[in-house]
């Protein structure tokens, strides 16, 4: 019996192999088994691939839903840019109006600039009020827009052959948001009102300052001409060169009054008289000439001593000068120490004549025992005149008389400069309070303006809309696909179908770096150049155009816009207030330190849905996270995989649909009366609004039905 069984086994084995290897039957069986395994693996892969398609659609729908949030944030940033730059433009324009008051040449532009500044700030408040309402309305529609966009993307993936029937439901996290408040310009209006109220006072003070400055400038010009401006004609410079041979170091030549000062004339006169003392010699050998030379030396020494007390102090705001006056005739001489100093020899040799005063000790008549006396004593005692030198009070008075009375004398031009210095000091003294009044009032307003610019930069339109943490999307494919569709073969059973498939996906926002060519406000003013008004309106629009760059470049754009506007206005004038106010305003603006705003656009990116839900912290999010965990841990026991979270979302979404037809007008922008205007409006595609409610309800029902298909339970709601 055992032999018989063994023989049978051996015979069976012989059917599969012989001494040379496998038989034909063995090869056939091996091939059939291999093909069966191959086609089975391929079928498994095909089924997995078909099932995975729903995840790809879910990912695309999540990105599409979150893209609506990204687009909304672009609108928010555009409104923020408009509100911020309108505030800055209103303040800068008002500041320019204040600055223009400081000179008569720009004062004519001030009323228009001040008026435009107030209009811009009013327009900013109107814009902000409407933007707050428009953005809040658009924000409330975001869940619907995201859901509708996700559903549209899902439908777009339905194939023409009926192999796919996708429905999607998008859930934003958080689902609700606080109303958006754009605020008001606040203190900017107060500053504009203050500027308007003080305008007349500043303008009048500036006009008076300009008159006094022109008067002082004319006086200074006259002094400059008589010091060196008339060269090579008669002037102090030319006389010092001709009469004293004074070198260039002590006798400089200035070509412009702008570089010249009164101190130049004073130093020149001081050097001149020191040189005249050093070179004084009689022009002849006669007694009369020797006497005149001696008297000239006395006059030069007196002049040098007096001029040593002279001074000039000028720091730009204060002028104080002392040019000692020199006697121009005998009467003038009697009022000086030349008249009272006992500097002249007195002889008493002739008892009949009595005491005689001489011009200098070298007089031939100055013999015997000499005493010293003054011209005042000579006239008081009625002394006899020396027959040799002929010395009298008039002798000394004549020394400067000739050179003081005609323009070929140094003293003539010195006297003009000394008179001019007194006039200049008076004019500057009257000018100072007027100038200071302008600086105090205008400077205070401009400082206030700079402070408000800094505060405006800190107040921004910002939003945390529904979906700012992310959006979770449920997608279901309701199409049933035969298991053998497109893959019929004899190795795999073709019975059954692939039923409904579902997937979940999530997306959030990440920054998309901006560049100079593409950012959230790069084309805001496109097309507004046509038909722009001239004059101050053009200045205002240039300022606004420049300030739009503040959003990206901060302080650089702010300073550039202000400098450009200041350069456009002709801040000229003798008072120097134009130079002061431009520098003051630019320095005040520079102190703001305005930082650029992050202008990167936002783009959606896929993330784990649990990450999105966990960030929200709401009851709904907690429920979703709990359901997801249950599905992962117990896939067959989760009866509420969709129904427990879908119902709440469906109600919230359908409530947002009303009042969306025709789009949402966020805000109107009109910079000032007669200026360019445009509207920020979000137009909603008809495909998203027409039948949208049914669209969302169908998706929710399909998701709940899918839960019933998996668990056998349809939860009633």
Plain-language structure description:
Mean pLDDT is 77; it is low at 525-534, 634-642 and 706-717. The strands form 6 sheets. Strands 3-10-13-14 form a 4-stranded antiparallel β-sheet, sandwiched between helices. It has a 4-stranded mixed β-sheet with strand order 8-6-7-9. The two termini are 75 Å apart. It has 2 domains: 28-183 and 459-711, no CATH class; 203-434, no CATH class. α2 (24-100) runs antiparallel to α13 (536-547) and α3 crosses α4. It has 717 residues and is of the alpha+beta class. A hairpin with an 8-residue loop joins β6 (344-347) and β7 (356-357). Helices cover 57% and strands 11% of the residues. It has 21 helices and 16 strands.
Layout: helices, strands, pairs:
Blueprint: H1 2-16, E1 17-18, E2 21-22, H2 24-100, H3 110-156, E3 166-173, H4 187-229, H5 236-244, H6 262-279, H7 287-307, E4 311-314, E5 319-322, H8 330-333, H9 337-340, E6 344-347, E7 356-357, E8 370-373, H10 375-381, E9 384-385, H11 393-405, H12 410-458, E10 470-477, E11 481-482, E12 497-498, E13 501-512, H13 536-547, H14 550-553, H15 555-568, H16 577-590, E14 601-607, H17 609-616, H18 619-633, H19 643-654, E15 664-670, E16 677-682, H20 686-689, H21 692-711
Parallel strand pairs: 7-9
Antiparallel strand pairs: 1-2, 3-10, 4-5, 6-7, 6-8, 10-13, 11-12, 13-14, 15-16
């Amino acid at each position: 019996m055992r032999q018989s069984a063994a023989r049978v086994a051996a015979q069976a084995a012989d059917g599969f192999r012989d001494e040379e290897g496998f038989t034909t039957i063995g090869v056939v069986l091996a091939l059939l088994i291999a093909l069966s395994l191959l086609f089975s693996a391929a079928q498994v892969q095909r089924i997995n691939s078909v099932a995975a398609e729903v995840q790809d659609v879910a990912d695309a729908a999540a990105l599409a839903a979150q893209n609506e949030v990204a687009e909304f944030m672009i609108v928010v940033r555009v409104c923020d840019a408009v509100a911020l730059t309108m505030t800055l433009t209103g303040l800068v324009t008002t500041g320019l109006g204040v600055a223009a008051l400081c000179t008569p040449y720009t004062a004519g532009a001030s009323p228009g600039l001040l008026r435009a500044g107030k209009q811009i700030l009013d327009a900013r408040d109107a814009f902000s009020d409407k933007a707050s309402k428009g953005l809040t309305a658009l924000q409330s529609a975001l869940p619907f827009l995201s859901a509708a966009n996700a559903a549209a993307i899902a439908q777009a993936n339905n194939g023409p052959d009926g192999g796919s029937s996708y429905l999607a439901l998008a859930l934003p996290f958080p689902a609700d948001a606080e109303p958006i408040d754009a605020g008001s310009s606040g203190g900017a209006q107060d500053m504009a009102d203050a500027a308007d109220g003080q305008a007349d006072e500043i303008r009048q003070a500036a006009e008076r300052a300009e008159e006094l400055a022109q008067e002082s400038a004319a006086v200074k010009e006259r002094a400059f001409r008589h010091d060196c401006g008339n060269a090579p004609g008669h002037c102090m410079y030319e006389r010092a060169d001709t009469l004293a041979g004074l070198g260039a170091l002590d006798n400089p030549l200035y070509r412009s009054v702008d570089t010249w000062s009164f101190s130049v004339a004073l130093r020149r006169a001081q050097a001149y008289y020191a040189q005249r003392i050093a070179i004084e010699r009689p022009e002849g050998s006669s007694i009369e000439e020797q006497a005149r030379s001696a008297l000239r030396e006395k006059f030069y020494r007196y002049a040098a001593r007096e001029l040593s007390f002279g001074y000039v102090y000028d720091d730009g705001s204060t002028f104080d000068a002392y040019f000692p006056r020199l006697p121009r005739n005998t009467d003038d001489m009697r009022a000086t120490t030349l008249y009272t100093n006992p500097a002249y020899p007195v002889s008493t040799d002739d008892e009949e004549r009595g005491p005689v005063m001489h011009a200098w000790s070298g007089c031939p008549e100055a013999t015997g025992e000499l005493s010293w006396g003054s011209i005042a004593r000579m006239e008081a005692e009625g002394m006899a005149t020396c027959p040799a030198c002929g010395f009298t009070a008039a002798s000394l008075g004549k020394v400067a008389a000739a050179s003081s009375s005609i323009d070929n004398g140094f003293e003539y031009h010195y006297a003009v400069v000394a008179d001019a210095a007194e006039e200049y000091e008076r004019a500057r003294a009257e000018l100072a309070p007027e100038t200071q009044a302008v600086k105090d009032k205008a400077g205070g307003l401009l400082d206030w303006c700079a402070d408000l610019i800094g505060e405006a930069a800190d107040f921004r339109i910002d939003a945390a809309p529904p979906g700012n943490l992310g959006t979770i999307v449920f997608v279901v494919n309701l199409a049933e696909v035969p298991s053998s569709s497109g893959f019929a073969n004899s190795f795999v059973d073709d019975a059954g179908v692939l039923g409904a498939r579902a997937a979940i996906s999530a997306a959030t926002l990440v920054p998309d770096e901006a560049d100079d060519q593409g950012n959230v406000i790069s084309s805001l003013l496109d097309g507004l150049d046509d038909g722009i008004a001239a004059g101050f309106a053009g200045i205002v629009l240039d300022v606004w155009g420049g300030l739009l760059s503040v959003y990206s470049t901060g302080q650089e754009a702010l300073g550039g816009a202000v400098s450009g506007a200041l350069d456009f206005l002709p801040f000229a004038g003798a008072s120097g207030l134009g130079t002061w106010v431009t520098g003051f305003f630019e320095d005040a603006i520079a102190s703001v330190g305005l930082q650029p705003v992050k202008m990167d656009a936002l783009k959606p990116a896929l993330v784990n849905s649990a990450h999105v839900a966990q960030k929200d912290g709401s009851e709904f999010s907690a429920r979703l996270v709990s359901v997801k965990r249950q599905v992962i841990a117990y896939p067959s026991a989760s009866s509420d995989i969709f129904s427990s979270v879908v119902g709440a979302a469906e109600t919230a979404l359908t409530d947002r649909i009303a009042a969306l037809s025709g789009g949402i007008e966020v805000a109107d922008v009109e910079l000032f009366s007669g200026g360019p205007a445009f509207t920020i409006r979000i137009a909603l595609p008809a495909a998203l609004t027409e039948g949208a409610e049914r669209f969302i309800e169908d998706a929710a029902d399909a998701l709940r039905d899918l839960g019933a298909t998996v668990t056998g339970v349809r939860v009633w709601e």
